[in-house]
Amino acid sequence: MAATISDSVFDAALNFLETNGTVVHILTQATMTWSEIATYTKGNKTGCTYTGPADHTSGRKTVLDAISGGSVTGSGTVTHFAITNGSDAVYVCQELNASQAVTSGNTFTLTACTIAIPDPTA
Description:
Elements: H1 7-20, E1 23-27, H2 34-40, E2 41-46, E3 50-56, E4 59-64, E5 67-72, E6 76-84, E7 90-102, E8 107-110, E9 113-117
Antiparallel strand pairs: 1-2, 1-6, 2-5, 3-4, 4-9, 5-8, 6-7
């Protein structure tokens, strides 16, 4: 039997992400380990903003607002992005829609991204 979880519980988790997930890194591969961010990052943007929490098709969501003016700090091909607190934790890692070659000294943009917590199912 599936449990029912209040929207306020989901919203607390999403609010934690919105409050603490302030830095986005573009990465050459996926990682959920802070110590690997320095190895895989090719750029970052501080000062992320979000829209939400709100209803999702099943559960709750927040939207990482579009990013512009991110700093590219290394050259290579990026395949993922990660939302971090900028010091010791990775909260979300997601594959980009398409890999992208980046060059140190340039800037990057990301489109808005939905982060959802689905309702439990049986």
